[in-house]
Amino acid sequence: MEIEAIKDYCLSLPHATTDIQWENDLLFRVGGKIFAGVGLDGASAGHLSFKCSPEEFSELIEREGIVPAPYTARYHWVMVERFDSLSAGEVRRLLRDSYEMVFAKLPNKVKASLKRGE
Prior knowledge:
Layout: H1 3-12, E1 16-21, E2 25-30, E3 33-39, E4 48-51, H2 54-60, E5 66-68, E6 77-80, H3 88-104, H4 108-116
Antiparallel strand pairs: 1-2, 2-3, 3-4, 4-6, 5-6
């Protein structure tokens, strides 16, 4: 799955936004919280990172081309170094799961404001 396809999918999720942070990371957020990121250049160019469940984290890091994400692995984030490590369907499912986990942890006030369209 290419970066443009990832961007299109992430932005198709309700209330998802994107921005660039740390000069070269394209981040996807819901309610201001990051649920995925893609490195645009430098050492992390083309690497996709996202949150997953503890069980999925353990399974994914056993695959070739998927490693614990730097700085965030303790929160069960992985980094996909090679896009051929996952099928497009798996990427979409994992991104959706990450989005849902992050959305679920948002404060109720933020969730309510998103639902009202603020």
